[in-house]
Amino acid sequence: MKSSRLLSILLLLQTRGRMTAAELARELEVSVRTVYRDAEALAAAGVPLYGDAGHSGGYQLLAGYRTRLTGLNTGEAEALFLTGMPGPAAELGLGPALSAAQLKLRAALPPELRAQADRMRLRFHLDAPGWYAEHEETPYLAQVADAVWRGRVIEVRYRRWKEPREVDRRLAPYGLVLKAGRWYLVAGPEGPRTYRIDQILTLRETTEEAEPPEDFDLATHWRRTQADFHARLHPEEALVRLSPHAAARLTGAQARALTTTGNPDPDLPGWTRAVLPIESQDQALSQFLSLGTEAEVLSPPTLRNAITSTLAAMTSRYT
Questions:
Q1: What is the DSSP letter of 19?
Q2: pLDDT (tens digit, 9 = 90+) per residue, 23-66?
Q3: Alpha carbons 20 and 17: distance in angstroms, whole number
Q4: From CA 162, how far away is CA 191, in angstroms rounded?
Q5: Pairing, β 58-61 against β 49-52
Q6: Closest CA to 299 of 245, 236, 243, 257
Q7: CA distance 43 to 201
């Protein structure tokens, strides 16, 4: 365990340059005192590592020093081959580069690890899009990716869901995200905001440089975006009673709410009474009507009345 940690410190300093003991401790999930001891061990082993004290100090390797101790264990080799995504790489124009990189990595592995990596590649395949998702054409993906790599402002004509449907935007690209088989661009300058790349109608790259804010982190931003989306997805609630059949048909946030708020219904043995999140009353009207006699909405009164009115209209139509 210690030898693996020492190698990690060496590789971190080799790739990132100067790092403080606190930064290394956070990266390795150990104490600062452990980092101090590991640094002493590396220095004693002859690694040209030196540290500077003070606010702007930290550990650093001697300029020009490179280690060849990049040996992978079995799990690491398997994980690297598992991360190969030929579909997205090809969409970005990186398919040949990915194949070449995997070929070089495979050739550098010892025979036993090469066999394990081949076994992983043959037995696992990543296919990100869902079953019912239609393939969306993204003719400008490669150009958007190029603008992200090079840090160039782009001018686009963009199709959105509200009026006016087509708008012109001048965007400073911050990063690309692949979510459920669909590509998104996170961009400024008014933002960061998220744009679906398949909704870009025209694109022109400019010579103006674009840099994300210094404190911007793409992964952190996307997690916040996802959290905000889910918070807005179910802004309302409904109190319902459900038969076992109806309860089994709930999914996602409603299934989780059933687990946390569900209690035996006092009036119908075997049924469950729970407070469920809903997107809107119109959406809930359609959902609970589809459950038929297996569910009953108790509140809010407006939703219950809407269901009653709809059932009365259906009865009138069919009689």
A1: B
A2: 888 888 888 888 888 888 888 877 788 777 766 668 888 877 76
A3: 10
A4: 19
A5: antiparallel
A6: 236
A7: 57
